[in-house]
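Researcher: Please translate sequence to structure tokens.
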Amino acid sequence: MKLYEALDLKQRAVAALVGGGGKTSIMYRLAEEIPASCRVLVTTTTKIFAPDRIGYPCFYTNEEGYKDEFLIKALQSGKRPVLASVRIKENNKLDGVKPQTLAALFKAGQVDFMLVEADGSKGRPLKGHLEYEPVIPEITTRLIIVIGADVLGRPLDSEYVHRPEIVAELTGQEMGTVVKPDTIARLIKHPGGILRTSPAAAENIAIINKIDCLGSLDEAYETARLLKKGSGISKVILCSMRSENPVADIIE
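Model: Translation complete:
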């Protein structure tokens, strides 16, 4: 199954991706899967690498001469424009757009699907969040919480977890001990965890990505079961971006 189908995206949707590593790959996979007849905007409220693929022209809100009409023309032409505030030449990254700017574009009716990378994790499969993170637009209709399955069975340390000390604090687990399904569930379901920032109108969906890294899917299914239990998460999707049809299962 395609990811677009599993997320059941309807017309006029804003999907914000947060959590661990794999968000950018998921975002571009969605941009490719959504029908060509739809106007799709790829953007960020944090920092992402500039796209290295054809059909994703970049626009910068802080650049001299920028006008919304240029972006709208690209959207109408069937391209998948990427909107950022500026390009950071030193590391080839795109800096984030203010949520208010994204809200104005969406409310103007110029975009059918807005895909927003709203969090950074330095490529780690799991993340502990500071108070001001993530930066989720209030217009979000799908909050997609990404978890890298490759963290399961790994130590709770900075090699596999972004800000492991926060994860340790929220889960009550000691640094250096093994990350298990219960670790992930306790982190995400904690009152001080990522769901605290979810807009009231958003549907919360978890994606356990990189399941191809696991010898068995038992722990992935156990993680999904624990996440679903009393958390406000509507469904958990097991997937691998390496597959032509990335979705292996949906737990609802």
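Researcher: Any highlights?
Model: The mean pLDDT is 95.
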